[in-house]
Amino acid sequence: MAEALNLEVLDSVLIEVTDVSQVLKVWEENCDNNDFDPSQYLIRLAEIIEDEIEQYMKLDPDPFDDRHPCRTHPQCSYGQSLKTLFKKDAFMDKLVHYYMKERWGTNDLAVNTAACRLFIGILPGLETSAVYQETEDLVMRLFRWAETSPDPLRSYALGLLGASMEVPEVASKFRENNMHLVPLTLCRVRGLQAEMIVEFERPFAQFSKNGMSCTPDTKSLSRSSSTGVMNGDIHTENGDAVIIQTNSTNIFGSRQSVTANVPGTLCNPQSSTTATPIKRKRTFALTDTTICNRKKSRIDHEDDELLMSNRNGMQDLFGSFEVESPLPEDTPKQVPAVNECSSSSWVEMESNIIGMMKIYPLTPASKQIMALRYLTPLGEYQEMLSFAFKNNAVELILNYLDTFKTKDSRLTFEALKYLSSLLCHKKFALEFIRKGGLLKMLKIPRPSISATGVSLCLYYIAYAEDAMEKVCLMSKSVLATLVTYAMWLLECSHGSGRNHALMFFGASYPFKIMLDLFDSQDGLRVILNIISTLPNFLADENDSEENQMLTRQVVRQVGYNLKRYFECHLSFLAEKIGKMQQVSQIPQTSNRTEGTSFYKPLKHDPTKLRELNNFVLPLMPLWARWHPVEKLIKLGGLQYLMQVIAFAYDWNYSGRAETVKSVLDILATCCLVPRVQILLTERLTLQGSNNLTYGLSIILSAAEGEVVQDPDVQRSALVVIGNCVSGPLRRNGVATLDQFQHPTAVSKTPIRKSSVKTCEDLLNKIWECVRVNNGILILTRLLLVKSPIRDADSLRALACRCLAGLARYKPIRQVLEQLPLMKSGMIQMLMREPVLQENRQEHAVFQKYGLELIKLVYGKITGVEYDLNVVAIHKSDLISQSRIQYNEKQLLELVREHLRAKGLLETAVLLGKEAKLDNTPPIVLSSSSKSLINGLPLTPARKGKSTFGFQAPTKQRTVTLDTIVTEYLTNQHSLCKTPMAICPTFDLVVPHKCPTPKARVPTVNFAARFGRPGYDWSTAGSVNRKLVYSRFKPIRVLRSPEEDHFTTASFSSCNQWAIVGTHNGEIKLINIVTGSEDGTYSCHDSEIHHVQPNRKGNLLLTSSIWRRPLSKLWRMDTLFENIMEFDREEYAEFSNLTQDKVIATNMEHAYIYDIETKMKILTLEPRMSNQYTKNRATFDPNDELILCDGVLWDFKSGTEVHKFDKLNESISGVFHPKGLEIIANSEVWDVRTFKLLRTVRALDQCTLVFTNDGEIIYGTKCEKETPDGYKIADTSFVTLDATDYERIGTIELKRNIYSLATSPNDLQIALVENSSSEDSVSDSCVRFYEVGRSRGEEEEQVDEEDEEDELQSQDSDDDDDDDEGSDDIGLDVDRLLDELLPNENEEFENEESQEETEEDEGEMVLESDSEDAEAGEAEVDLSSGSAHSDGSDSTSGNDSDDGD
User: pTM, whole model, 2 decimals?
Assistant: First the structure.
């Protein structure tokens, strides 16, 4: 009695509890009791969860969204309850491992049923893979309960098994159990379905206690509803017929309503008989204006929004509604139908829209739903297909598709899920189509949750080509209804339904009839609406990461869909153009014939698409109007595509590469139309940014790998660029443009006037746009890629195609001619072998375009071998222009001698008489002549290839004795080292040899040159500079304190001090003569990387790395004081002519300040910059021009003059002291013509310092940043002649060189040398070298004991006359005589070594003594202030630096 009383008290307490947390609290208080019965707690928790599920279902969540309810609807109570429940680990463990066991005796059934009931309710929040894999015994119990237990435990067990079978590992483990249970479940479902149909045949069955619709006690609110958008078929029940509106889309974007009879609604009696279509004012969100200029709001209402508004007490779902939208002026306004409203309540229609599943008490529909959930994950397995056919699953599913029989949209949805799993099998899909399943599916009303299930089935049908062929053979009205249904899913369905519809259309585009129907219903506008109406299409930092990911997934789906759309249109266009032009060699994309073309699909692959591009590109007229592309431009879709590529740079999304590739593939097809190419050369504004950028600039960034580092993306971008730059110079086009233009594509909008009149104008605009956006640098760099190894060859081929197209533009061709890629024969080296031997096909394409590129750059050449350089190509061209002449009488004499040698004496005598040949003795033939008489030319021609790269023409020609002799003499001519175009008559007996010019390489030795008679003193200046600036003698070294190290140095204008910058931001004035430190000034808080005094010596500019102000101007008269600060400018220098101005650099901007007024007088902001990483703005020698970030400015007007091509990433360039040239890295540009004059490879990545007379260039390598963040400099510097850019020498040291400065009289240089170790700051020093002197013999003998510390100097000239390179002071009589009296072989030796001298000229190694104990070098330690004088002091000469 007490126990019963306690149970009653407990029941009353639990009934009053309405929160999960409170129930769990009571459970925790009583769970440890001995007589504890968990069933009451489980039942109360299940009741609370089920009530919250009911409220959650009213929010119409996406049925295919398997995320936690808290993530989809954060405010819903169902999700919060699940979170609260899952936090109680003790309860969850007991629920899974304890309460679902058979250990309760007579109470087993009640506890197990309550536990399974609760388990069913919390499944959406569980990680089923973890639960079921760890509880194998639980799955076995579920199989037993599903077969033998009574309801509701039996149905609950089936539902839980369905969740477990979604885990592939569990399904495979229990394969035998499933094969036993599946046929039993199918029989059970058939019986339940029959009982349900009989039940609903009774009048008013829907209001019965166990009916499908919800009873009034569970749903107290009855709401009036609108005439929802149902299907267009007529349905009757009990003789009552009613009409409901159906929306369809016409090609102008407006909506048409089609009447349909549906039970349970009221209508006008007249309309019920006539069923006349009624039009309503309804349009798509996109209008004729561009997408970017309209609001981000969709005109077409989403049905879930309507449901939400109904729950807030607003308009009923099935009430009449009318949405105003902007229409064209010529579109007549439609009047809404009369009596569109009905009195149907939400209670009546809820089951047809979102449906409900009662977990308790179980209804017949709930039992079927549980069984279908078990069958669905198993339907895709092949071994389960036989059970579906044996139990006639097709008929079973067809009955469920009739919602007027099931009365529950949720049950129909579960049946559609089971159908989708079976449609994976082609055999079942064909059977389903044959029995009219598609027609049944299209009758499912919308909006409803079952309509979302239809979307998945449509995708699986379209995925099976055989099934889709059967669909295409249906009547056109059925196909139009199918397309209309799928279009509605794109606009008004859940997110999953929209994605499935996108995939359906993507799979159906290859069928021409489906593509035509899609276009006829304005499908492209609907697809673009999906992107344009995304709420967070732009990168929104405030938006959650999950919402951003969902948005990007939608963009990815739309991109792939549009890619398939345009590729299919391209195939059909190619066929149409081919028929117009009567072209037989059209790339085949399918096995379609004339009679089967409408239902046979296209089949695409990258190779076929590339062939289609190449086929259509030259045949597209200049002003072609292609319907899909015109529609895309009209709707503003092109701008959206460019924004996707630009925004993808900041995406953190795994599908980013696929999204960008799809968009680029769309552009590759669209840019076949010249109008799109023009739009890509124009500037566009990206949303969220005020900067204007070119469309081709974005595509070039993708080709470079800047957007996404993915080879597939780079390939697609290169295809777009290739289609733009490789267009034909003349377009023949189709006969008339309207022949391949869609009937509805005629644009009535006026076309903007364009400067493009001809194909050449178009190509020039494209070529210039690519050049301005640094396309030469990007494409030449792609030619050198070696990784990833599998994609390198294809990337090279596509990049070479683009360069071959650009090379038709003369300014670009002139630049390419001077680049090492062409001038040094680098491209020929790349053409020899592929990067990967498996990619020989791609390498053959690269060779094809490589030969085309060489021909365009260097002229027409009949044949070029891949191992030739530019010199050989020029030599081949010269030989091909030579006119071969020979003595014909001499040839006849050789023929006569040949006849005599063969014993044909009479014939030989007769030939001599007729040809009037002298009866001379036989000619003594050389070996070459004998080979000609024997009928065999020399080996070069016999091997099929010549040494000069000239190959025989491919076309056949008549072989005569004259052609044989001419070829023989041509091959002889090719062996000459310096062939001439105009040659004398060839001698057939004596081998031919062109005269060799006698050129002498001047010796560097001054004494030898001075004493040589007839010496050409015009070359004395360059030779003297080579002699002087190839020798450097270290004379003094300044040591840094231990706590700091030097970073930069410069000489004062009076040549008295060395101005040295340190890592701590200090400036030190060091007396050059005494080595004492005359002053130390704190200028910056960070490392000083640049100092520059003016010529008067009263001002000093300093620049630091960080900590503002970055640059300062100091006065050095009597006091060292700061007079100007430059806050953000990281580099500053004086003007050159008057030095009354300062030009400062901040990234790509430059600012000019007047020193006297301390005011900013000019700001230079380029419209399009090169974005060099080490940009330094500078004046020209006359202060008339300014170079900043590769852009040339006029100082007086402040306008841009020219933008030079960017051919490197870091160095912007400096003016030559002569003022006529600009040296940007290794490229030398002409300021007057803006042409690339030459490339100097020795200056690559070098900081340049000119001597004061402007005749010598010093180059030090720029610092390189290590992965650890340290900056490491090179250990050598180069000297070049500034007049001809010939390299004088390379001076190699053992320390890293961070700065180089030259003295005002150019007699000394100062180098800031630091140790290569980052931790050894004490090894920092400033070393002074004397120019033009090297160490003498006496000084070398002092250091003979330590050879490692010896400072060696090697002359850059490899001339045998000056081999030693150290006798520059003493005079060697023997060597002087050798100079004055050269031997006979000197000329030949000079000829042989001339090319090597030009290549390796001036290589000199000056290995720095790391112990600084050289004779004649003084050492100064700034920390101690002591200095050692010169090398005459034996003490100082032996004093060594222990630091090295």
Answer: 0.77
